[in-house]
Amino acid sequence: MRNLIAVAFVEPVAEGLEFPRDDWPLHLTLVKFDVVKSDVVKSDDIVKSGVVESGQETRAEPGPGAPPAAGDPLAEHIAALMADPVAAAMGCRISVGGEAGFGRAGSIPVNLIEPSEELQVLHNELVRIVEQLPGRISTPAYTLEGYRPHVSHHGDKRLQRGDTFALDRIALVDMAPDGGHATRRILKLWTGSQS
Fold first, then answer.
1. Share of the chain residues as helix, strand and coil, in percent rounded to the nearest 5
2. Measured on CA atoms in the order 91, 95, 96, 100, is the torsion positive or negative?
3. Confidence (pTM)
4. Among candidates 3, 18, 14, 11, which has minimal Cα distance to 155?
5. Running DSSP on this structure, what letter comes out for residue 70?
6. Largest CA distance in the chain
7. Is 124 within 8 Å of 69 (Cβ atoms)?
8. 57 vs 106, residue with greater confidence
9. Angle, helices 117-131/73-89, rounded to nearest 10 degrees
10. What integer best gives the mean pLDDT of the chain?
């Protein structure tokens, strides 16, 4: 299984950025999921998306040191499926609400995000896309009606009640690039300047 997550970054980031798993830039999780990977991809859906030519076989995983999305047809395919809902939500304003504790015994401090129709629609559309992939949503109870958008605090990095930000850095992130779990890598980054 390939561990991926779609997020909206609050802090500036770049496509290809790799960072330690315990030092994420501030972000809002949109949907976390696992997708089946195979050594060779040969799919009508990927052919239809224009990622590979009909009859062409290609590796699903980039080799060590390879550029993050180049030669990664699985990530390219997922990014292509997500492009329209991401574009539709790009630029919408998000308001930060109060603090809460998530995780075991509420040990993870977060800022809740005020209800947003645009954000909920984006989340719902990404969930719909992921549900059509061979794999699973990691935390199904926290999707759709159970979705509680939030931004986790990371050390001294945090948002404050009343802050606002635009959805202008939405990304597909690999939770275990090259099979290692110590870092995360941004595979695809959509920015407000692309819309």
1. 25, 35, 40
2. negative
3. 0.83
4. 11
5. T
6. 53
7. no
8. 106
9. 160
10. 86
User: Which segments of the chain are extended strands (E)?
Assistant: 2-9, 18-20, 27-35, 40-41, 58-59, 93-102, 108-113, 135-137, 150-152, 164-166, 169-174, 183-191
Q: Could you give the CA distance from residue 81 to residue 70 in angstroms, rounded to a whole number? A: 17
CB 71 within 8 A of CB 51: no
Between strands 169-174 and 164-166, the pairing is: unpaired
How do residues 60-97 score in pLDDT, each as one tens digit? Answer: 444 433 344 457 999 999 999 999 999 999 999 999 99
The two tokens of residue 99 are: 């603090």
Assess contact for 100 and 172: CB atoms under 8 A: no
User: For 168-191, how does the pLDDT look when each residue is reduced to its tens digit (9 = 90+)?
Assistant: 999 999 999 999 999 999 999 999
166-182 burial, b if ≥16 CB within 10 A, otherwise e? ebbbbbbbbbbbeeeee
